[in-house]
Amino acid sequence: MLNPDSIDPAPHRHEPTADRQGPTADRQDSANAESLSTEDVGAAIEDLQREINRLQRSIRQAIQAQLSRFADRNLGSLQQNQQMVQAIHTLLDSHGLRVQCSECGHPAILRVSARPGIEHGAFVFDHTIDRRRTFHGGRAVMPQIRLVSKPTRKKAAS
């Protein structure tokens, strides 16, 4: 049996009514709406951009702190080192980041390449300088990592 005290005598319904539809209702809504100033919008967007920059800086610092633990080490096999740097690249790419080449300072992708005399592979910085693919580094252990923003892609010359 229904409890009469639990029944709302005036149910709240948010259904459109016939007199609130169409262009007339739109004009009434816009007439009642509070207008925004370009200054308010500009200030809000600037505040939002500052907050996003702060969050991105925090993310970059957290990633860099964790990656610094791997410096001067390797995983003991070429395949494991390659998998590690691929996982690092995927993480960095998802946040618009690259590693900074310790030789020239350009944004780069860290890779591990097979090299004679380096049993577990050489850690190299892969990047493009003056439209030419360049590899710097070549140590047997993970270099110290410094993160930088991913550069914008350059359009191919037509």
In short:
By secondary structure, this protein is α+β, with helices and mostly antiparallel strands. It has helices at 23-32, 38-68, 78-94; strands at residues 97-100, 107-115, 118-129, 132-139, 147-149.
Describe the structure.
This protein is α+β, with helices and mostly antiparallel strands and 158 residues long. It is built from 3 helices and 5 strands; from the N terminus they run αααβββββ. A 5-stranded antiparallel sheet has the order 4-3-2-1-5.
Estimate the mean pLDDT confidence.
85
Strand content range: 15-25%
Strand order of the largest sheet: 4-3-2-1-5
Distance N to C terminus: 79 Å
- Give the total of beta strands: 5
- Order of H and E elements: HHHEEEEE
Derived from helix and strand composition plus strand pairing, the structural class reads alpha+beta
- The percentage helix is 25-40%
Number of helices: 3
The backbone outline, from C-alpha atoms, is: elongated
Draw up the topology in text.
Layout: H1 23-32, H2 38-68, H3 78-94, E1 97-100, E2 107-115, E3 118-129, E4 132-139, E5 147-149
Antiparallel strand pairs: 1-2, 1-5, 2-3, 3-4
Offer a few descriptive terms.
3 helices; alpha+beta; 158 residues
